[in-house]
């Protein structure tokens, strides 16, 4: 992604938009022919799939670039401080297109057997915080343990007891601590929309 495209995308977010912007007629953010297709109907890298080892600083990746700017800032500050403790915070998933979220939900239904059981692990595109860039899944047990202990200092909170890797920004957590966790997404009122 070019610097100009990234700057334009940052402006898009600063204007209060949620979700990843659609690209030009060519389907890419920077308008280059053959560039990666981006947007809500896209899967693959353009839909938010991240390669192994992605960091919070890999803002050329749509799954990282599509995070809410305040969440991304908090995650980057946490990653920098975690590295001082020899902990590498890897981003396994961040922003996701609606199509990619639907793909994950379909895979969860196949894996868990019913939509009700899948809902304990994967939200619908309409309710997923990932689709709006408001959630990040981090990798490695060291990273989840570090964030469990220090995440509130950055307003980063684990939301679900069954998802130790899923973090969202919670204003005031640095002062008041993180709110109580939900057992799983089925207990989260935001998932009832």
Automatic annotation (TrEMBL):
Residues 26-55 are annotated as: Disordered. Residues 32-50 have a biased composition (Gly residues). Pfam families: VanY. Gene3D superfamilies: 3.30.1380.10. InterPro entries: DD-CPase-like, VanY-like_core_dom, Zn_M74/Hedgehog-like. Residues 67-163 form the D-alanyl-D-alanine carboxypeptidase-like core domain. This is D-alanyl-D-alanine carboxypeptidase-like core domain-containing protein. It comes from Frigoribacterium faeni.
């Amino acid at each position: 992604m070019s610097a100009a495209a990234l700057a334009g995308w940052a402006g898009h977010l600063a204007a209060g938009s949620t979700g990843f912007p659609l690209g030009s007629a060519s389907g890419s953010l920077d308008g280059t022919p053959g560039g990666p297709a981006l947007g809500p109907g896209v899967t693959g890298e353009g839909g938010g799939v991240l390669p192994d080892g992605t960091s919070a600083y890999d803002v050329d990746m749509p799954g990282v670039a599509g995070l809410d700017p305040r969440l991304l800032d908090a995650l980057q500050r946490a990653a920098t401080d975690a590295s001082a403790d020899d902990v590498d915070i890897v981003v396994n998933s961040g922003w996701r297109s609606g199509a990619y979220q639907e793909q994950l939900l379909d895979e969860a239904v196949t894996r868990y057997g019913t939509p009700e059981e899948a809902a304990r692990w994967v939200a619908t595109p309409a309710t997923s915080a990932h689709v709006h860039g408001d959630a990040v899944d981090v990798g490695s047990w060291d990273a989840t343990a570090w964030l469990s202990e220090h995440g509130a200092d950055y307003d980063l909170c684990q939301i679900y007891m069954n998802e130790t890797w899923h973090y969202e920004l919670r204003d005031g957590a640095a002062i008041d601590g993180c709110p109580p966790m939900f057992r799983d997404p089925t207990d989260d009122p935001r998932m009832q929309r």
